[in-house]
Design goal:
The protein is α+β, with helices and mostly antiparallel strands and 196 residues long. It has helices at 7-15, 30-40, 60-67, 75-80, 97-100, 107-110, 115-139, 152-159, 189-192; strands at residues 52-57, 83-90, 143-147, 164-173. Helix 1 (7-15) packs across helix 7 (115-139) and helix 2 crosses helix 7.
Length: 196
């Protein structure tokens, strides 16, 4: 069976998707960010818990504070990307469940009363939403540079609070000159898929 999604969209979202390492200085507008979110917010999560939180780093002062916490190899591109987003998991997402999961509002207390249960669920589902976010950036005609090379505790202390766990930092913008490393290999289906 072939894919229903148009081949051009398949290429845009997946086959041509790469981690960008350089960007032009063309700004990323609030309207573009809103359009990305308005698309990706519909991606499913367990209990519709939607724990992803996005902190946009726009000011020069905030950018300097963030760059200090990035690994050495990630500092230059984070310093020059048109927009940087810190993606985090909200460990208190359950407070929104009566609104987000109205047909079973008691899920908040039945499943997520304990902090360890919330942290596990928030991490998995926010990571899923982070993937949606990256695909949304691609859908907006922009490039994403997701990174986990940073001081997680430092970023949390600098930009978040104890209820939010940083997952990744994503540079966003139009790809610049020499933005891409050579494409690395991928595993084939028979290496990944097992039928039982």
């Amino acid at each position: 069976m072939s894919l229903v999604l148009d081949p051009t969209a398949q290429d845009l979202l997946f086959r041509q998707a790469r981690t960008a390492n350089a960007f032009t200085d063309e700004p990323v507008s609030e309207e573009q960010v809103q359009a990305i979110y308005d698309l990706v917010k519909f991606g499913p999560t367990a209990f519709n818990q939607s724990p992803l939180r996005i902190t946009l780093v726009r000011s020069a002062e905030a950018r300097e504070r963030l760059v200090r916490h990035m690994s050495e190899g990630n500092q230059p591109k984070t310093a020059t990307a048109p927009l940087v987003a810190i993606l985090s998991a909200d460990n208190e997402f359950h407070e929104e469940l009566p609104h987000l999961f109205p047909h079973f509002p008691q899920a908040k207390d039945v499943f997520f009363a304990e902090r360890p249960a919330r942290e596990g669920a928030a991490t998995v589902n926010a990571a899923l939403q982070a993937a949606y976010f990256i695909i949304g950036v691609r859908a907006a005609g922009l490039a994403a540079g997701p990174m986990t090379g940073f001081d997680f505790a430092g970023v949390q202390k600098e930009f978040l609070d104890d209820d939010h766990t940083p997952l990744m930092v994503v540079n966003i913008g139009k790809p610049g000159e020499n933005a891409w490393f050579p494409r690395s290999p991928r595993l084939e289906a028979d290496q990944v898929i097992t039928t039982v």
